[in-house]
Amino acid sequence: MATRLPSVDAVLVGFGWTGAIMGQQFCDAGLNVVALERGVWRDTPTEFAPTFAQDELRYMWRHHLFQNVADDTLTIRNNTDQQALPMRRLGSFLLGTGVGSGGAHWNGQIWRFLPSDLKAYSHNLERYGKAAVTANDMTVQDYPVSWEELEPHYDTFEKLCGTSGKAGNLNGKIQDGGNPFEGPRSAEYPNPPLAWPASPAMFAEAAKKLGYKPFPHPTGNVSKAYVNPLGMQLGECTYCGFCEKFGCGNYSKASPQTTILPYLMAKKNFTLRTECEVLKVETTSDGKHATGVTYVNSAGEEFFQPADMVILSAYILHNVRLMLLSNIGKPYDPKTGEGVVGKNYAYQTMGSVNVFYKDKIMNPFIGAGALASVIDEFNGDNFDHSGLGFIGGGYIASMTTGGRPIEMIYTPDGTPKWGMEWKKAAAQNYLRSSLISCHGSVMAHRGNYLDLDPTYRDSLGRPMLRMTFDFTDNERKMSAYMVDKAAEVGLAMDGASGIKKNYRKGSWNVVPYQTTHNTGGAITGDNPKTSVVNKYLQSWDVSNLFVMGAGAFPQNAGYNPTGTLAALAYMAADKIKSDYLKNPGPLVQA
Amino acid sequence: MARMNRIAAVVGLATIGLAGAGVASLALSQGRINASSTAPGVATPTQLLTQPIPDGAPNIDQIRQGQYLVKMGDCVSCHTRDGGEPLAGGYGLNTPFGVIYTENLTSDPDTGIGAWTPDQFYQAIHSGIGPHGMRLYPGLPYTYFTRATRTDSDAMLAYLKTVPAVSYRPPANGLPFPLNIRFMIRGWNLLFFRPGDFKPEPAKSAEWNRGAYIVTGLGHCGACHTPKNALAGDKTGVPLHGGDLDNWVAPDLTSNMRTGLGRWSSDDIVEYLKTGRNAHANAGGSMGEVVSYSTSLMNDADLHAIATYLKDQPASPSAAAYDPDPGAMKRGAAIYSDACASCHLQEGGGQPRIFPPLKDDAVAQQGDPNGLLHLILAGGRTAPTPTRPTPLSMPSFAWKLTDQQIADVATYIRNAWGNRASAVTAGQATKMRARLGLKTVHLTDNSGDHG
Q1: Does residue A590 belong to any structural domain of this protein?
Q2: Contact call for residues A36 and A305 (beta carbons, < 8 A)
Q3: Cis peptide before A115 (omega within 30 of 0)
Q4: Quick one: which of A252, A211, A214 has its CA closest to A235?
């Protein structure tokens, strides 16, 4: 029997980026907020001290900051003809856990989607016709949000993070050195770009020669000491090369820890409970109103936390699973195309090109999570897709995220995987190679979705989430196109002696690591028949339930998701504060 | 601020900001949702001190003034035990003679000050005599508080009587004979205590005099920053020349260019007291508490007054010139580059207000290197303040550097970039390590650099 706790204004389920953002927004508005986090407490000096933070074996390979799949994982299959099996070791994506979660161990890549990304269906329909948006069983949809509505919230997040970058379109005026394809921005980035080491600088030169417009990757690896609007301080990035999969001990990477938490934790109307896993969102008997959440602590004791608002701010896979476990919304059925919860699960299509040099020294260890020069000519609909057989695209970037010795030794094609020849090649190429990434979109397809697994259960006895996902020809053709374009730039880089193309071929595989950009399943839209939440991330079925995160993306764009999911959270918070609190109920009429 | 033995402050027991969160989480990780740190109604010290006083009481202005003076006196730092309610006392002051536990200052009539009269309260802070005539131990800095006016004393008591009652009796003091006989204090007082009111200097400005009233009165800055004699009395001839505060050093506050505030402007001092950081230094350790619970909550006019007074203090004598051992400097430079430069930068310039510069740094150049050794060994934590909530922290190097390496890098920091101070020996590092109870570097068979 669960112990009933005193009621609060809002309960946050999960305490990463969106949990921290909503907590701060609500507490500043005077609400009484409880956050429940299944993982442990993490703060910068205790967990990420610079005396030990750069430990590749501990953090990258032994998954120190990630979800323990022995307790809870998900099952995976490529299509409905297969038997889904549990992911027993993290591979293609690295699920976060604990306070800050993925926001603590991300790279700090802060992107805005293109205005046309928000209209992926209607834009492509208009330009390329019906077949372009329906081929390969595509179920692409528009966001119910316009660029103009979202822009101020992108700006808020960029300022929170002290984002380093260079504007390419300031209030409609194209700026030299920035991304000319981006939507009009209301303000320049709060910090100047990071300085480019060898590889990004050479990539930018080569790209210019080919007529492209390279620009610095926008990033929460701050280039200068910074104080954000909450008074939180970030230090100048040291280019140590340990962002991705690591916490930053130098206070140089924007994370919930460095940008929000100390500010929020000092508030009397905020309470965080760690190692508390939410089992279910409880609803009234008609299923139309959430009464709170039931959770279990590390001692196995159950509690019911009543709340006027329930905010699902865990990772998308957990948010979707909690909705399914709580019987909220109609589960998606790929056979009929009916139902919405779990629909339009998408991912990212990652390709790359290795570039090798005979004499040029790249010093790859001078790195940062988003230390890169980028071209955006082949992202979204920045180029004519006529006759290409796919829609979508991605950015192409020379990234120097680090020179981590286990993960990041690249050898040319034909090199043995071990032994003397491998050692020779590793010694020759560690300093003399670099990587060009092709970070591509994944469109929504009828057969890609999330539901509850009928067989496998977690350590608490709940059905696991089941992921059914595969790339289609749309993604494979896009990857081939992008990798070939990237290879042209690679070959044009000064001193390049050879390249290796890494296409995304065949079916999606749970190994190797690709990216932790899982999206969809709780998608936003303007119609309850085709979406789970409205534009304010409010459940169509339960109006006091809000679902944060990239689960809201109807399909995934060719950018990293954090900037957009944070902007959507700020937009929801604004609307809740301005309208919902005065008059609780649906914010959009179905 | 006489709250001594504050190793714990560095590792973050303080119930504010992120460290407070750590405490909450620790309790909650056990799944105890009713842990005191999160129970409704229990405030952190900052929350208590910034709680608005509601309208209604006839002496509302007096109560509000009293709340402000309790901040100025930094009462909460000493009168709050670890994990206890703010102002409920029971914190053990680790004096050179033994442990003195602080009193309960909440309005509880039996265990707190709820039954005290204004006369009794004034007698305590002005004369060091308790409500029943017994002499108080000078852990209560009445040698400074004696300068507080009767009006201010009455206001403080009026406010303390509004602090929710907590029934809590502090433990008995752990003082050895004969110090456990309070009568002995009379002798100490005869030697070191001059009761009396604050005497303004008519030749100085009103602002200077306000600063003097705070610094030498309720602010009791000299309790730490003035050197002490063998009997723990102030060396009155060298006010604010810097004191040895248990395992810390309270730096020189005179106008000395190396060890004192000579390079700081008045505005620098105000910024430091208000936000816990400025272009020269970050406040950590015991001073971090002073900033969090006292100066950051004071008004700008008073902070400017403090700055005006401090900037008028004549410089302490400069240390003799000193040529450091080139070998130690070379080794120290290599360690610095590897271990320190990522935050404090290669040329010691730091990232002002975030990671303090070490070039021209006063703590680094104190005659006594213990403050620097403490930081290297145990790490440090910048005070979170309302305007700058980030508790920026430096990690402990105790497990990573040997005592010789710590001595070398300390010597380097004290003499690089134009800094000048005496060399540090491995023996000094060993001694401080023992005082802090920190383990030595542990090298395993496969760590590759043992032997």
Answers
A1: no
A2: yes
A3: no
A4: A252
Low-confidence ranges of chain B (pLDDT < 50): 1-40, 448-451
Mean pLDDT on A216-237: 97
Q: Flag whether A324 is in a domain.
A: yes
* Distance, CA of A285 to CA of A289 (rounded, Å): 9
Residue B46: closest CA among chain A residues belongs to which residue?
A266
Would A187 be classed as within a structural domain? Answer: yes
Out of A50, A231, A272, closest to residue B25 by CB: A272
Contacts of A303 in chain B (CB under 8 A): 33
B51 touches chain A (CB under 8 A): no
Residues 384-413 of B with CB under 8 A from A: 384, 386-397, 399-400
Say if residues A143 and A557 touch (Cβ distance below 8 Å): no
CA distance B324 to B412: 8
Number of domain units in chain A: 1
Structure-token match 């852990």, residue found: B139
Chain A residues within 8 A of B46 when measuring between CB atoms: 266
Between the CA of residue B157 and those of A554, B86, B121, B152, B165, what are the distances in Å?
63, 16, 7, 9, 14
Distance from CA of A374 to the nearest CA of B (A): 27
- Report yes or no: B22 at the A interface, CB cutoff 8 Å: yes
Beta strands A270-274; A33-37: pairing state: parallel
Binary contact (B342, A40; C-beta < 8 A): no
Give residue B99's pLDDT: 86
A30 at the B interface (CB within 8 A)? no
Decide if A525 is inside a domain. Answer: yes
Check if CATH label 1.10.10.1100 holds for domain B326-436: no
Q: In angstroms, what separates the C-alpha of A151 from chain B's closest C-alpha?
A: 28
Beta bridge partners of A34: A11, A271
pLDDT value of position B25 = 30
The span from the CA of A547 to the CA of A533, in Å, is 7
**Inter-chain residue contact A275 with B40, CB threshold 8 Å:** no
Q: Spell out the domain ranges in chain B.
A: 1-318, 326-436
pLDDT, one tens digit per residue, over A392-406 is 999 999 999 999 999
Q: Which residues of A touch B355 (CB under 8 A)?
A: 235
Phi then psi for residue A222, to 5 deg, are -80, 135
The pTM assigned to this predicted structure is 0.92
Helix (H, G, I), strand (E, B), or coil: what is residue B224?
helix
- The shortest CB-CB distance from B343 to any of A6, A250, A276 is to A250
Out of A233, A251, A265, name the one closest to residue B20 (CB). A265
Q: How far apart are CA B275 and CA B383, in angstroms?
A: 8
Question: CA-nearest residue of chain A to B401?
Answer: A51
The predicted model gives A465-492 an average pLDDT of 98
Average pLDDT, integer, range A23-32: 98
Read off the pLDDT of residues A363-402 as tens digits, 9 standing for 90 and up. Answer: 999 999 999 999 999 999 999 999 999 999 999 999 999 9
For A35-50, write each residue's pLDDT tens digit: 999 999 999 999 999 9
Looking at chain B, the whole-number percentage of residues with pLDDT higher than 70 is 88
Determine the distance in angstroms separating the CA of A274 from the nearest CA of chain B, rounded to an integer: 6
**Segment B15-38, tens digit of pLDDT:** 233 333 333 333 222 222 222 333
CATH number for position A509: 3.50.50.60
Residue A390's domain spans which residues? 3-580
pLDDT at B223: 93
ipTM of the complex: 0.91
Within 13 A of A518's CA, how many CA atoms are on the CB side? 29
In this prediction, residue B444 carries a pLDDT of 59
Find chain B residues with C-beta within 8 A of A301's C-beta: 31
In this prediction, residue A515 carries a pLDDT of: 96
Amino acid at B448: G
> How many secondary structure helices (H) and strands (E) does chain A include?
13, 22
Question: Catalytic site residues of A?
Answer: 517
Of A43, A231, A251, the CB nearest to B21: A43
